[in-house]
Specification:
The complex is a heterodimer. Chain A is an alpha/beta fold. Chain A is 47% helix and 15% strand. Chain B has 13 helices and 21 strands. The chains are: A alpha/beta, B alpha+beta. The interface between A and B is medium-sized, with 21 and 23 residues.
């Protein structure tokens, strides 16, 4: 948990990273890795008690300041207030944001139940677009900073088993790609992270143990990606190759595979 | 419920094992779900209990490894609030450099605080400071009914004492508060004394144990005759800050033992040779040897998976305590029975206990002596032989450490733990459907 990865540009100690969806294992590890590099943290999520626990844990382990904020990806009406509250509280110190929230949902149900499909799309795509819309102007004005979006390899090609989630993550990946293009001239770095199977509650019991990577590996890759100003990273790296292959299977064949 | 995986689990001794559905909550809400939906369950930390206390082959085993958040730390009072999945390793890594140490540590740092509380672990300072529970101010317990109950010596004290040493059978602790002790340096100033037999060792304990905060003896479990129970006493006090000391934490490096060792590697002949060398390599007497806490408290942690040295059949850890009165005779009887048997006692450790926790029905330590030893699994005859030892222990008014046990009989545990009936009544009240259960609980008939 607490092992710091390669530090990004070392923080001077007063810079803050905002993590949205802070209670997931990937988010916890990412927060710990930034804290290990000296960043203060603002952690946000829906389950206030859990967010506070994660914040307290990071603060005690790493001796940084970690505050918690309530944030619900689905409550888009509240995102303007949220963005203003965070940028207001951190002033110029907000160095970057990590969009780590998302839900897998029930793919089977989503195929026939629009409520389920809508929630998957709202939590993985609409909510992300909404909160970034309110946060981006801050970084644009500042002409620096980083925006990390945790998308998914599922967004690289539509598959029968998981296309609602995949389409939302695919939309998010495209949004980040466009944002990167637009913000390049402002000096704001946008990093798209595409995890494969990671050993978290999302995959536990669904993926063979040993097939899923340690969430700390995602955190280390994010820090490296921020430092090296990468555009798109796959974690573990082998997924770049796997998804290259999957993307390049001709559709007439792919549609028969039932993946 | 979040996903689960069917797995074969065992304790650290790799005997016995069972197939169980494993789930791994990451949030309190996940844990609540496990508690309300699992047919039967027991929590498991790092699986360092030697026997069958921490898996439930009838149903679910709940890994607490991701419920490992530090909740609060007050440097003024030294009180740490942490979740049950936080490990001794993590606490020392974070807080030793800030000048704090745990008031009680077991022989490995790879245990969770929840597991440590469920076994009410003791350390080398038991004769001075008691077991872990003495330093735990309170905890929150998720009970089978789904309630989160605050337990302390004042509030819900019956549940507090039933959970201390309660082997996870009263609920799942979410977080606990413990008072840490200030640490001047990471070192212990250790005195070594060789004792040529058990009588000499006990004499040294009685003569000078009170001078030392930490005290333990390595014992040669194979030597016989005039050398029966020959020992090396290792006793020390925290070293003050000064030349050659610092507040360094332990190293995280370790060597992983591959799983290639045949069970017969450690036998009476090889261990007799090892014991002789080990005994002789210690000087008759050495004073104030500055030793880092890691090598003093956790000598085996550098070898991760050292349990593999005993081969795939695994091993038992047999630990018992006997009261001072009649304790010497019982120890000698046990050592003699082992010396005459085909079964070697490896890595034997002798220690003097101070007062136990009278209010806790299942907490192991009692004023007297305790002896712990590893026994490689051999044949069925070994189990009969150990029942003979159980009778010696029981007749002396002693008991077996349940947190390490893998084979004790249900009637024997009733002789050894007087408070068991009252504990079973409370268990019935807090868990009427007996959903909290483990292979150990069924073996010892703590659940129907």
């Amino acid at each position: 948990m607490s092992r710091p990865g390669t530090p990004p540009q070392e923080s001077n100690g007063s810079e803050v990273v905002l993590i949205l969806g802070a209670t997931s294992m990937i988010a916890r590890e990412t927060a710990a890795t930034f804290a290990g590099a000296g960043y203060d943290l603002t952690l946000a999520g829906r389950d206030a008690e859990e967010v506070e626990r994660v914040a307290a844990d990071i603060a005690i382990r790493h001796g940084v300041s970690a505050t918690s904020e309530r944030f619900d990806a689905l409550d888009t009406d509240d995102h303007r207030r949220f963005a203003e509250a965070v940028t207001g509280a951190t002033g110029d110190a907000l160095a970057g944001v990590v969009v780590a929230f998302g839900v897998l949902g029930d793919s089977e149900r989503a195929a026939t139940d629009f409520d389920e499909a809508q929630e998957i799309i709202a939590a993985n795509y609409v909510g992300a677009v909404s909160v970034l819309t309110h946060l981006v102007p801050y970084f644009e004005r500042k002409k620096s900073g980083f925006i990390v979006g945790i998308s998914s390899v599922s967004g690289d090609r539509g598959r029968g088993s998981i296309y609602t989630y995949g389409s939302a993550k695919g939309g998010f990946s495209l949004y980040l790609q466009g944002l990167r293009n637009r913000l390049h001239k402002s000096g704001v770095h946008v990093l798209t992270v595409k995890p494969g199977f990671i050993d978290t509650r999302m995959t536990y019991g669904a993926v063979k143990p040993g097939m899923a990577a340690d969430p700390a590996a995602v955190a280390r890759a994010i820090i490296r990606g921020v430092r090296k100003k990468k555009s798109v990273i796959y974690v573990p790296r082998i997924w770049r190759l796997i998804m290259f292959a999957i993307r390049n299977i001709p559709e007439p064949i792919f549609k028969r595979l039932g993946l | 419920m979040t996903g689960s995986i069917e797995r074969q689990l065992s304790g650290w001794g790799r005997y016995p094992s069972g197939t169980t559905e494993v789930c791994r909550p990451e949030r309190l809400s996940d844990l609540r779900e496990c508690m309300s939906e699992a047919t039967s369950l027991v929590a498991r930390g790092l699986g360092r209990s030697y026997g069958d206390a921490a898996f439930n082959s009838a149903g679910f085993t709940v890994l607490t490894e991701r419920l490992n958040r530090f909740v609060a730390f007050d440097a003024e009072s030294g009180i740490l609030d942490c979740e049950a999945g936080v490990t001794v390793d993590e606490i020392l890594s974070v807080l030793v450099p800030r000048g704090f140490f745990l008031p009680v540590v077991p022989g490995t740092k790879y245990v969770t605080m929840g597991g440590a509380l469920a076994c009410d672990v003791h350390g080398k300072n038991h004769h001075k400071d008691g077991s872990l529970s003495r330093h735990v101010t309170d905890f929150r317990l998720l009970t089978p009914s789904g309630d989160l109950v605050f337990c302390s010596r004042e509030e819900n004290s019956d549940l507090f004492w039933a959970t201390v040493g309660g082997l996870g059978l009263t609920g799942i602790v979410t977080d606990l508060r413990i008072k840490l002790i200030p640490l001047e340096s990471s070192y212990v100033s250790v005195d070594y004394d060789r004792a040529e037999n058990i009588d000499k060792a006990l004499e040294l304990f009685h003569e000078s144990d009170e001078k030392y905060k930490y005290s333990v003896a390595w014992l040669d479990g194979i030597a016989s005759g005039r050398s029966l129970g020959r020992s090396v006493l290792m006793r020390g006090n925290p070293a003050a800050a000064g030349p050659g000391t610092d507040l360094s934490r332990h190293s995280s490096r370790s060597f992983s033992v591959p799983d290639v060792f045949p069970g017969f590697l450690l036998n009476r002949v090889s261990v007799r040779a090892f014991n002789t060398v080990y005994y002789r390599k210690h000087p008759r007497k050495a004073r104030e040897v500055l030793t880092h806490y890691e090598s003093f408290f956790f000598p085996l942690d550098r070898l991760s998976n050292w349990n593999r040295l005993y081969g795939k059949k695994g091993f038992l850890q047999y630990q018992f305590a006997v009261p001072y009165e009649g304790g010497r005779e019982a120890l000698i009887k046990v050592l003699e029975l082992f010396a005459k048997s085909r079964y070697g006692m490896f890595l034997a450790v002798l220690k003097r206990f101070g007062p136990g926790e009278a209010a806790s029905a299942l907490s192991f330590p009692m004023p007297g002596y305790t002896l712990a030893a590893d026994l490689p699994c051999r044949d069925a005859g070994m189990f009969d032989f150990l029942r003979q030892i159980d009778r010696v222990v029981s007749a002396a008014g002693g008991r077996i450490y349940l947190g390490k046990d893998a084979r004790l009989a249900a009637d024997a545990v009733r002789e050894m733990y007087e408070g068991l009936d009252a504990w079973l009544e409370l268990k019935a009240r807090v868990d009427p459907d007996r959903r909290l259960t483990s292979d150990l609980a069924r073996r010892l008939e703590l659940v129907p």
